[in-house]
Amino acid sequence: MRILSLSDTLVTYIYSSQVRARFHGVDLILACGDLAYYYLEYVYNALDAPLFFVRGNHDAVIEYSTAGQRTAPHGCIDLHRRVVQYRGLLIAGVEGSARYRPGPFQYSQAEMWQHVLQLVPRLMLNRMQYGRYLDIFVTHAPPAGVHEGDDYTHRGVDAFRWLDVVFRPTYHFHGHIHIYNPNHPTKSMLGATQVINAYGFKEVEFDCC
Hints:
The chain is α/β, with parallel strands linked by helices and 209 residues long. The protein has helices at residues 18-22, 37-47, 109-130, 158-167; strands at 2-7, 28-31, 51-53, 63-65, 68-70, 77-78, 82-86, 89-94, 97-98, 106-107, 136-139, 171-174, 187-190, 193-197, 200-205.
């Protein structure tokens, strides 16, 4: 399965007619936050592939445009605090970042634990039904200790690290950490999980199920 992940910044040639040729054959789109809803709708419609998303700390509660107002990208699936199955893939997500100021889609570390623990019953059920807990974890912020920034705003989330270590998804896609230095790592292993910073976009081929 070919997966396209997006996060944090609009890529000009993705938001253009070039996207169909460049990403033809993508089976699944994962959006990791801080992207305009109109942008996600464009990619979703252009590639005719399902798009699962979480919101980032800069996402609007209501987005206004010439097409009207929206609180989510039309046709796309919100993963926040959900576990879903798509073509045999087990996918879960949590939105937002660690709180650093008042605003939407920011949570204390304790609140992030609540979000993650809400996923656990379904993960346990996955284990009984499919022999594994989770294939893909989608978040905006990174797990603590992996790809996180040096500043308070861009710190990682403790509960995300715990989920990766305990439930061992194959991939954890996140955003929130902008990449300005090409030598900055965007792919790291955390136990059995490959953690991928989707800033801009990343592609992976996932042989599963």
